[in-house]
Amino acid sequence: MKRIVLLFAIGYLLIGCGGGKEAVPESGVSEDVIVQSLEQQDGGRPAILPETLSPKIPPQKVISSSAKTIEVTPAPKEDVKIVEDQPADTTEIAVDIKPPVIEEEPVTTPQETVGEPVSPELIALQTISFDDIYFESGEWAMPSSKFSSNYYVTLGKLVKILKTDPNVKIRISGYTDSQGSKENNYKIAEKRALTFGKLLVELFPEEKRMEIAERIEINPVGSSDPLVESKNVMRRMLNRRVSFELFYGDLENKSYTMYLDSKPVAASTRAVKSASSIQKKLYDKALALFNQKRYAESMEIFEEIIQIDKTHSLADNAQFWAGECLYYQKRYPEALKAYQLVFGLGDRNKEAYAQLRLGYCYFRMNQSEQAVAEIRKVSSNYPKATEENRKAEMLLSKIQSY
Hints:
The chain is mostly helical. It has three domains: about 1-50, no CATH class; about 120-260, CATH 3.30.1330.60; about 270-400, Alpha Horseshoe (Serine Threonine Protein Phosphatase 5, Tetratricopeptide repeat). It is about 45% helix and about 5% strand. The chain has 14 helices and four strands. The chain has helices at about 1-15, 30-40, 120-125, 150-165, 180-200, 210-215, 235, 270-290, 295-310, 315-325, 330-340, 350-365, 370-380, 385-400; strands at about 135, 170-175, 215-220, 240-245. The protein has a four-stranded mixed beta sheet with strand order 1-4-2-3. Helix 9 runs antiparallel to helix 10 (about 315-325). The longest helix has 23 residues, at about 270-290. The protein is flat, with a radius of gyration of 51 Å. The termini are far apart.
C-alpha cells in the first residue's frame, strides 16, 4: 500500500513540474520529506509544503507533445544601460587639438594703423555730400535755371554747417568745359566760385561776414579736370559746375577775404535782396515738401532757414511749420516744444496760431485742464487774431462737451 501511495505522490509531483516531460532535479524533493508527508496524511492527498519546491525552477507550460518548451529568461539588470543616466562622453574625452597660431597672421587694430589717426569730426565730414551746381556756357553770375533750380537748398545746408561747427571750412571749386582757352576758362571758373562765396557770406549778419569769408576757400580749376569727356553739347554742361567740399585745417588756396575790400562795407540793397530771395526759395521748397507729406525733409529745410537768420521775417513761420511737421506725425510732445520756440522769432506773426496749437497738443495728450488754460490765452493775448480766436472757441466747446 505504501508503494502505491509513494508512486501516486511522485506522479503528482511530476505533473506539477511540467507534465513529466522534463526530469525533476535531484535537489527538488528529498525522500525523507516524502515519507514524512505520507506519515502525516490520514488516507487523503498528501500535503505538499511550499518550501519543499525549489524556487529557482518556475513552472513550465507545455504547448504540445511535439513542441519544445520555450523558456523566457529576463536579462540581468546589470546589463541594462540607460543612456539618459550616463554622463556626456565629451566631458570625459580629452581632445588633443592645438588652436591655430594667430600670431603668424597679425591683425592691424585701429590703434596700430600707420599714419595720423582720423578724428571722428573728419569722418563725419566725409559722409556729407552736396549736389554740384551747373552753369550755362559762358555764364558765372547765376547758375542754370534748368539744371540747378534747387541750388538754394545746398546754400542753406552750408550755412547751417558753418554756424554749427566754428572750425569747419568750405572749399568752393569752379570748373568749365574745354571750349575756349585755358586762361579764359580759368577766369570763368574763378568767377563761378566767387559767385557762391558771395552768396554764402551774404546769408550771414554783417558783423559775421569777414569771419565767415576767412573760412571759405576759392579754388578755380578751369577745364583741367572735366567730369566727362564728350563732344555732346548737353553732356558738356556737366563740366560747367561748382562743387563744395568741407575740411579742417589750413587753406590750400586763397580765402574769400582776399577778393574783398580791406574794410568791410555795409551790405548793399542787392545783397540783402539776394539773401532774402534765397530764404524765400527755401521756405517755398519746404512748404511744397510739407504738402507732399514729406515731413522729415520739409522740417530739415525749415530749420536751415532759422539757422541762417532768426530775425528774418520768415523765421517764425519756419519754426511754426517745423512744429506742424511733428504735429501731423502725431509726435505731440515734440510738437509742443517746437511751437514754444515760435515766440520772439521773425516778425512774430505766427505767435497767435502757435498759442492755439499749444492747446491742441495738450488736448491730444489727454491733458484737458492744461489745454483749456493755453486756449484761453489766445483771446487774452491776441484779441485781434480773428481766425485763431474762432478756432479756439470751437476747441473749447469740444473739450467741454466730453
